[in-house]
Amino acid sequence: MKIATWNVNGIRARQSQVLEWIERERPDVLCLQEIKATSEQVPAALCEMEGYWCYWHGAPRGYSGVALQVRKEFCPTQPCFAHPDFDFENRIVTAEVGGVTIASIYVPNGGKDFPAKLRFLDAMSAYARVFSATKKPLVLCGDLNVARLEIDVHPKERSPRFTGQTPGERAWFADLLAQGFVDVARELDPQNEGLFTWWPPWRSMRARNIGWRLDYIIASESLARTVSSCEVRAAFGTSDHAPVVAQFSALQ
What we know:
Deoxyribonuclease I, Chain A, six-stranded mixed sheet
């Protein structure tokens, strides 16, 4: 099972890139965030992509929104797409595929309403705890807007005062993983000091690789043991975020 996630920073601006990327990667499950469009505004070529079950959870005011696509060859029966109770501003959609629940998530950045971000994170942790307690596999994908560790931010960008790097946010992340989940990319590449997924869109920060790691594939331990690769496609696309792609052998 190949799972891919990408904060596209505007699906209408990135339509051709998304189609090119899907053709190149052929993911079994595709999670998109920050689509910045209502469901009705999603380009027709993406709304019902050939070979995929598509679900667009468009943002009413056009600034957040998430999507989830499942390849029909991998999952012949249309999955049930759903939203946990804590969803707001159209920031999460889930689907069960082959007994595994997969979530596409766009956590609020917290710059304008930090308490709302903390409430969302706490609710997501409680949601994950149910899966851990019942031993049901779960994969959380997307832009979590938290740089988990100090190594996940370039030294020029590090500050515990910055939203996304505060001690409380990092404590939340540690608590989530302690419930029986694995940060797949960091597990496979623990010492990489240049493993970033987002770059400030100024002063050639991306070209200089001065960034943060905000986009994740977080998997239940049982699933994480089957991961053979998890890579950031840092050179692809014009979004300020890069795609992340993981290959699991738990499902074929």
